[in-house]
């Protein structure tokens, strides 16, 4: 279970409130790279963890840290929406929020729906979406999902760092960027501990690989039409990364035939002309011209 | 630009149609681990690729292959919804679809909305969601996103493999599982080609790391309350994976203070009692008891 | 503005309640082909109608009728969830809802969230989505959108008709199917009144067509690779439907060149290896191998 | 900031795992009445709280408790998906998950996407949606939102209680139902502390009520057509609940006129026939018949 | 069933069209606090109402009124997008919409998708979402949901009132704010009529309260870590609001133990290393270190 | 299956990059009228096509063309985000993206999430939604859906044409507008080939029309209250468009009675007062006043 205190994990200061930056910070709260996502992702991975409990405990530990990051960013949003020190606010013209909302590039719902506070949505006001909470039950897959979340999350934080000159905001982002640095490596450390990249491939490594169609397991299928050179690289030649095969380039050609679906079921309520069409092309020699003949 | 022929990349056969399996296959079409997602993800990464064109070309190539995977799976859905050979269908009682839809665990919309064909949605009928198309502009982040997609996608395909006894479906899945094997390594090969894990950390590696708060860059913050042992592992001691620091465990304690937001703006339309509260706790010595005093 | 009475537009009777059918009916309420959608679609088209008010009035009239269709279907859902006459209910074992919910293929949220009543969602429990409310500001485009809604809506109603044996439900569907018959023609009648198909093409017909690239306005681009016959039909030869051109088939070949994006911005936080890549393929004669050479 | 230990707030036991119940429990996790929602709702209200900090602290306290409820329910889902004691599992035929997934009414994604664990979605597999996190900046509005969440949440828990015979699950639900009992009153206690219902109406009570159109502030508009009796009740006569007016019933009649929109802008790309229509009905005496005349 | 006339419930005038305000008004149409939501919410509650019909009739009555509010607001949007009187429009440069759309903070889809009219979405362009239509089957829960909708809706209207200087818009909002005043009390009046707050607690009051874990029904669990004072208030001491207990504060401590999930199923396709881990911590005395030992 | 080359179907040039236009172009990528939608819509219709294969082939052909349109538009977005020639970029102040993102009306996620590239979402940042992929299994319904997509798509392209002065962008749009011209007629040509409008009505024309309630199949129900003139037009008199009936206007009056739902189930957990209400109005003569009497 969970506990809290009333303090922030790291100081959140805003020297010059900027409602536009409050909008941008929303991406780090409710966006696909945001803190609500990583928080719930790590916690759901922990809640469903099967296997060694050390990984569950680690996920729970860091998931708990992330709740505090949501708090920091939500606080940062609220502070950026305070357009003046408290004593000035009473005196100042109350047209401020209107101007901020409409002219300043603020998310208008931070005022209209939240009364000058953070929302559980991204920088475009799109609500957080629980389908981004990845918890696959496969530890290696989840670790790569977590690396992705922290890599895109750190890219986001670096870009936000570019978009503000406020010393307080830069300081907060310095902390968050550093935490993303740690968390990327934390998840990759699990891969290493599980035996490293090679031992974990292909993911899941618990599927009996003799069951897969081995002849295409290390082929780079070149789908370019004639005259299009297939791109060469580590993936096109040499030993595969799992040490079990050799990469090669192969021109993509159909191994299958034309798909043949049955005519529409009467109860499918296609148009009569579809149903009158008779069998598929090639099957009878009449094929798809039936309709044209009778319809035109 | 793009071209097609009328054939399938690999044969799709269904010996014993199973409308329930048609529902499950939807996850591999429109689910977060599905083919619509990887197809669009690789294509959008290609369309926006900056830097060496070989990576763009590779993404475009494999993105193009994935369109054909959508086609294979949609064909498999349609074939699983054909409850009998064509000649029998006309004779058979037309109550079939009803029974299939309601009793058999089929996605009812495959009949109601699509007349016995695939939808652009997942195994629960939730529509495909473009926010899962990750294309961050950072090649390493994108490669990890792609590994994740192929790892969860292969886990999905393996699980589907368990859920069918149909030889045709098993054959198709053997092909798709093998392709996921290749694609996982293809994206990791890019990481290797870019210098390997260490050289790419932290992602993005183009941010001046002296700007981040280095003192917390390699700390595992233990958020457990007293008596909760922090989980030990590769992440808690030893050199960091980027070779620039040492992991260590640190008890999480607040570095920040209590957040202090200004009172509600008059135009924020809080309740009067909120606005009457006066300054924040500690700031005046009266703090949050003001309201209680006047309200009770 | 709007008014109501307490009666139904058409009788809704259920002789043998069927919780499974209650789930299927949800598609006709909150699905993309459902009544909430057409109701809001016609009303929003009316509310934003510019031009002759007769069309606005007609849209408002039929939009108002559709509110009553939502009511009928929601009533049908509620009645299908009443598993027994009232006097029996008190006596019967209260395990009924559980069995219905879990075993019977019912939408569990009709019980869990609504206490045995209709939801504003589709047959898979996906909530109604306002983005399906099409109101483009172009009358012809809107009329085709409305024909589509009524065509897919009538197909849905016909399929539901197959899935029930209840005389009351069949009677209600006979009414709704007939109304869809009318509404399809109602919207096509507007096209006819506006001058017919030809006069309204291309939609919008208010754009100065000399501005478009006329040389491709009537070409069927054949994207099949060599050996793939382009499909022939009314669209491949003969006068165009707007009477201004001739259809023809043309092999699709690129008119454009390879896209050339600038290297990543420093502030874009790509990986260093992407940024070091130098100019694009062809521009320097070194092309895409630069990175590999210089980075490794 | 936040902390955790590795224990559950209350024991979660499952004597007879039931994958169908695992699906239903999802509603209490990721549904609109679920724990993810209340957890985030209370935390976001706390993070953005302005005014007396005691309310912030209370929201933070209970928001923190709710994280533990997510954990309990996710654990309950995982346990319900364990179809046999551990030692039996190895021996048992591995066809179990397939049967469970397809035949048993389980959410297939609990297996396909999560490997037998909970998802961040509802009982129909619809992902949690951050737009349900209400934090309006108005304390009274938020308290009513919280009462609603706990009232619908308790109704959900009571309905789940009906749907299981498992002693462990019933025990867990007894705890959660009791907590909902407390939380409903906790939020209403804030209303009382703020002065009670009357003092807080209308919400927000900080808007200068002389600005609203007082003559309709206490009218029940009867929208029934002639012959439809307006429903009588506490709302149709007697003093208003805020003590500032008298309820009365008033027949709804339009106070406004017909809306008159300008003709389509040329750049709006309506159809020519819409734009040719000339002015609005009544404005010129020609009105909406113009088009018909020229088009037919 | 439903009826309409061609007039507005209340006049909608715009003296100085403001495309930016047209965007903000969208929140009152398709936002979570908007009129589409309350309209459908009251109607769905009416359509599924069980029990005394007077409440159904009242819900139907007010739901019908709300359709007219959508109409008023959609008209207001359209009028705010008319950048000049009709006669000037033909003469004026047609660059207006572009400027309005891009520079002016307008929702670009009001032009791009709707040709200068309202959309069924919120102020950020997020489509209306049917999951906000609450109709729980429990009258008290629904009434609190309705109070919440009208409280947040009135806060929204008051905030919009701040954001416009247009006399016509202010006049329309005066009407809508007054209606929200009425509707808040209308729903609370039902609670009063049902016996008042106490008689209705806990919601649902039809669950046999002896079944819940009474010992925690009136406890405020303090989740703060040591040193964090639990917030005191009406909720922490004194009689409970339902008159059946006494509030008290209790330090939150785990009543449950560590959750113990079974190892991954073989068919769950976890990583081999997860499956090799053996039993859970404590169960064998070896616990979670097994993997590390064997893997490193 | 599918193939590609590395060129664009048509040149994409941007002379003066405009980040604001990059945002607007998103509507043509991931919006409901956008290219991702038509691409997937035509491909899913092809993948599930039953009946004459010529239509499948045509859908596949044009669906393949549309992938190239996504590519063109994504390239256009990326080019519009390049604020200066490559050589200048290195020198220029890096504040550019910030200014662009916040001040310029750009979609901030094009920078924050994509590093200056296109997203799979619309002009408001709302992700592409697979529920807009219509493939009904009925060819006529699908053709009208496709006409709608191309009609609204062409309106969108025309409106975008108004919003740019860039010669390169105008040239690209001239091409896309012309293709929409073709595609509208292509789908209507199928209707013609299937026998024309009349032969295809009502859609589906495979439902035995004697089963529908013929007496309302050609009635325009006038829902206006007394004094509201029903709008006259092609739909109110004369032969129906399917040649099987006569249009007529009919005043809408209820054919049904008041809906009568059973009292709440005990396990539905309504409030006690709802359940105590006794039978429905009229059934006993006591009706809905029971509660009031006993509760007050």
Automatic annotation (TrEMBL), chains A, B, C, D, E, F:
Pfam families, sorted: Mn_catalase
Stretches assigned to coiled coil: none
Annotated InterPro entries: Ferritin-like, Ferritin-like_SF, Mn_catalase, Mn_catalase_dom
SUPFAM superfamilies cross-referenced by the UniProt entry: Ferritin-like
Family: Belongs to the manganese catalase family.
Stated name of the protein: Manganese catalase family protein
Native source species: Deinococcus hohokamensis
């Amino acid at each position: 279970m969970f506990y809290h205190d009333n303090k922030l994990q790291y100081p959140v200061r805003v020297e010059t409130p900027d409602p536009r930056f409050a909008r941008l910070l929303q991406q780090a709260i409710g966006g696909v790279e945001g803190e609500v996502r990583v928080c719930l992702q790590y916690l759901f991975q922990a809640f469903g963890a099967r296997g060694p409990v050390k990984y569950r405990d680690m996920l729970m530990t860091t998931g708990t840290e992330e709740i505090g990051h949501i708090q920091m960013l939500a606080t940062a949003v609220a502070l950026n929406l305070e357009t003046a020190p408290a004593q000035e606010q009473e005196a100042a013209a109350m047209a401020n929020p209107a101007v901020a909302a409409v002219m300043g590039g603020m998310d208008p719902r931070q005022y209209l729906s939240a009364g000058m506070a953070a929302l559980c949505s991204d920088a475009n006001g799109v609500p957080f979406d629980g389908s981004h909470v990845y918890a696959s039950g496969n530890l290696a897959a989840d670790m790569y999902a977590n690396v992705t979340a922290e890599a895109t999350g750190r890219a986001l934080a670096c870009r936000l760092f570019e978009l503000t000159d406020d010393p307080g905001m830069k300081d907060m982002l310095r902390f968050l960027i550093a935490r993303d640095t740690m968390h990327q490596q934390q998840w990759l450390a699990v891969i290493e501990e599980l035996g490293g990249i090679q031992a974990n491939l292909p993911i899941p490594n618990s599927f009996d690989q003799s069951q897969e169609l081995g002849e295409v397991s290390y082929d780079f299928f070149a789908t370019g039409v004639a005259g299009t050179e297939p791109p060469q690289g580590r993936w096109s030649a040499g030993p595969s990364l799992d040490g079990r095969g050799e990469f090669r380039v192969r021109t993509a050609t159909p191994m299958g035939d034309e798909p043949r679906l049955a005519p529409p079921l009467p109860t499918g309520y296609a148009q009569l002309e579809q149903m009158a069409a008779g069998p598929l092309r090639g099957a009878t020699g009449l094929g798809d011209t039936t309709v044209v003949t009778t319809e035109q």
